[in-house]
Structure to design on (389 residues):
């Protein structure tokens, strides 16, 4: 992990290259987090990759319902030489959930990006084959969004537990 | 020295009778008695059902964690080969029984249905565990209960069921195949008509969770 000072130095370096790239930095519980503008995430990640954070350990999505911009895309980077980890967070709006694909930087981002698209509906621009990976091809909606109904079958003997005796003693 | 003839024991008697039978030297009364002892009459259906029930081969098909419990029923402790559930066949063409051991996702359901359709008649299905029967703890958009897309003969409840429970379900299936299906608790306790229906439901048929009856393969 870079320490708090190291995180600020990295952020300063990124801001020198592009003033609007880093929106905020968070250093909490030993974890360094860069909060990055969604439109500039590709440039930031390319810079970090050149600096030595060459391993994309994880790419995943978060839904910050009801805050807007709701959808978060998180990149966990690892420097294999110094064993430093850094997290890059970007937030996109549900009205136009678009963010640049990082498949050209890390080809292994292909499947995680498809998964984030499948579950949260974030569209990765520049992805070669952006289609559903877990859900059926004809599935409608993005099930990991928190406003998506959980679905399922009604369970017998529980439909009237709200009104009947024995409820929540 | 006195010579005594020993009493012929039962086994020796039967041995001599068989010898006489094969030589065609048996007297008519003896032959009649012999046939009455040795031959049992039944119907073809009953004989076939008896044979079928004692030679059901399950399909090698595991879906989730229940499959771990399913694997152990062929091992030494429960060893369902004792009942003729001999080997797990790797091809649906050779299998008589599919054990749905785990949760079936909406993406997996067409695959399961296709494998079931590929099995040759007569075929049976056991729904093992809570997920497969009622979606259990995964009651959400991703899963589908097995009754919705294929007929199920025996449901084995549990999460997961112990291997003994699955062996019990298999023996229940055997009795069902052999024509003496065990009564459900509603029949046994005279409780027909006490099924709980979802609000707004008017008839049992449409409101029941099960939409396909066992043996009904329509809608394939």
């Amino acid at each position: 992990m870079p320490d708090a000072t190291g995180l600020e130095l990295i952020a300063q370096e990124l801001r020198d290259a592009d003033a609007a790239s880093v929106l905020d930095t968070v250093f909490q519980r030993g974890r360094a987090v860069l909060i990055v503008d969604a439109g500039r995430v590709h440039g930031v990640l390319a810079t970090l990759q050149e600096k030595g954070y060459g391993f994309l350990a994880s790419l995943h999505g978060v839904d910050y319902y009801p805050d807007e911009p709701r959808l978060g895309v998180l990149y966990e980077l690892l420097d294999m030489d110094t064993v430093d980890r850094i997290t890059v967070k970007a937030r996109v709006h549900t009205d136009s959930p678009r963010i640049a694909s990082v498949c050209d930087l890390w080809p292994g981002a292909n499947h995680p990006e498809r998964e984030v698209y499948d579950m949260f509906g974030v569209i990765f621009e520049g992805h070669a084959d952006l289609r559903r990976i877990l859900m059926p091809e004809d599935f409608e909606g993005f099930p990991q969004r928190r406003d998506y109904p959980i679905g399922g079958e009604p369970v017998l003997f529980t439909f009237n537990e709200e009104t009947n005796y024995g409820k929540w003693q | 020295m006195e010579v005594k003839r020993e009493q012929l024991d039962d086994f020796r008697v039967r041995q001599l009778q068989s010898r006489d039978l094969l030589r065609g030297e048996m007297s008519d009364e003896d032959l009649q008695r012999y046939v009455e002892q040795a031959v049992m009459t039944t119907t073809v259906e009953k004989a076939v059902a008896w044979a079928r029930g004692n030679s059901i081969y399950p399909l090698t098909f595991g879906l989730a964690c229940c499959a771990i419990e399913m694997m152990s029923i062929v091992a030494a402790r429960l060893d369902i080969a004792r009942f003729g559930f001999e080997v797990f066949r790797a091809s649906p063409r050779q299998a008589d029984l599919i054990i749905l051991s785990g949760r079936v996702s909406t993406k997996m359901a067409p695959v399961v249905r296709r494998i079931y359709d590929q099995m040759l008649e007569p075929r049976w299905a056991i729904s093992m565990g809570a997920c497969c029967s009622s979606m259990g703890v995964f009651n959400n958009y991703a899963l589908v209960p097995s009754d919705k897309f294929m007929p199920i003969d025996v449901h084995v409840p549990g999460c997961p069921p112990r291997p003994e429970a699955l062996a019990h379900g298999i023996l229940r299936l055997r009795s069902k195949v052999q024509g003496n299906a065990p009564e459900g608790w509603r029949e046994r306790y005279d409780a027909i008509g006490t099924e709980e229906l979802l609000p707004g439901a008017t008839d049992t048929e449409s409101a029941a969770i099960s939409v396909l009856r066992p043996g009904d393969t329509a809608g394939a």
The mean pLDDT of chain A is 88.
